[in-house]
Amino acid sequence: MASITIHVEPRHADNTTCDHKVKPSGKPRDPASGCTGRTAYAVVCSEHGDVGTPHHVKQLAEPAATEHRQEHRAALATR
Prior knowledge:
Elements: E1 6-11, E2 40-45, E3 49-55, H1 58-77
Antiparallel strand pairs: 1-2, 2-3
């Protein structure tokens, strides 16, 4: 059985992954990077893809990731 990974991924406004360095405000540190700024954080599961809707604050996305991880653990326990 393949391992399932669940992580919180920063996103741009168009829902693409943001791996740029940003200021605490979410705006890019390097204006020439082409980054439009970080606007949300998505919970991503290797089995299900995006889980729920993106959160505007990382601290809200982390509990959602933990909850989804617990759902997988519960499903394994019932097998």
